[in-house]
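WARN  no MSA supplied for this record, continuing single-sequence
INFO  ligand: xanthosine-5'-monophosphate
INFO  echoing inputs
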Amino acid sequence: MPILNRPETMERITTSAQAETFIQEQIVDIRAQVGDKKVLLALSGGVDSSVVAALLIRAIGKQLTCVHVNHGLLRKGEPEQVIRVFRDEMDANLIYVDAVDRFLDKLAGVRDPETKRKIIGGTFIDVFAEEARKLEGVTFLAQGTIWPDILESEHGIKAHHNAGGLPEDLKFELVEPVRILFKDEVRVVGKALGLPDSMVYRQPFPGPGLGVRCLGAITRDRLEAVRESDAILREEFANAGLAGKVWQYFTIVPDFKSVGIKDGKRVDEWPVILRAVNTRDAMTATVENVPFELLSRITDRITHEVKGVNRVLYDLTPKPTGTIEWE
Ligand code: XMP
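INFO  complex generated
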């Protein structure tokens, strides 16, 4: 049976040799727990679910079915990367669900941030449940629960059920192979499993994705402006060696316009807001001191390459008084 609690004496996994030992132990445990039954996993492409997928593929191969729901609120290149890494390179059973229109149609005209979050979370469960019902004979649900999730749920800080809220008729036993690991250990294990650095060292990304960075009612054109500007910011931070150093950095596009000039003509277009913060626990955060030359370069690229954008602003606000996200 899998271990449910992190043993007090367990050493922190920091080396690839320790990760390899953990992987071998997990393979034995997973095979013992699952036998010849089938396992289902919601694979977002985030660190935890990706590491769980890679571990399960090693342990039980095609007995695992991964479902990747593209809700249209992922960063540029993410759905493609999930398909490339898991279907093409690891030969996983991967169901890719293009639910972009379904999510964006439901979100159309919805301004309130909490209502947007509820729609995104609720629609995700609906889409995942529909896929699960199409499959025959699935006994287990794999989840990327990690040790801080358990600690925080014990202390009432958050409910940790990643795929929680599934309807009553979908009752699965849980497989949680990284349950006793801290986040940094999950990354070491992911690296040992051969996952790309861009997946293993990925910055935190909220469940509702770009949906909370396209402020107010989401429109497809403004969402594209968030996605494209975010890709430019990430590329420029990577080129400047800041990618692994800054804790979280992203762009926001508000739902108002200002006047500007392009090609000698007045244009009413959106601003892009840049945010780059450092923190230990996300409860408080400081603002990264980004070199002015880099900010200027990013501004130049965004205002010339992203459709509908004529200004770039840098958010200088620490948390508190700001939160990290804008809604
Ligand atoms: P705030 O904005 O509260 O963010 O300072 C703290 C951290 O939490 C992330 N965040 C979310 N993550 N669902 C998530 O999974 C959400 O609705 C959500 N809102 C904020 C945020 O990106 C930051 O890392």
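The chain has two domains: 16-200, 213-314.
INFO  checksum written, moving to next record
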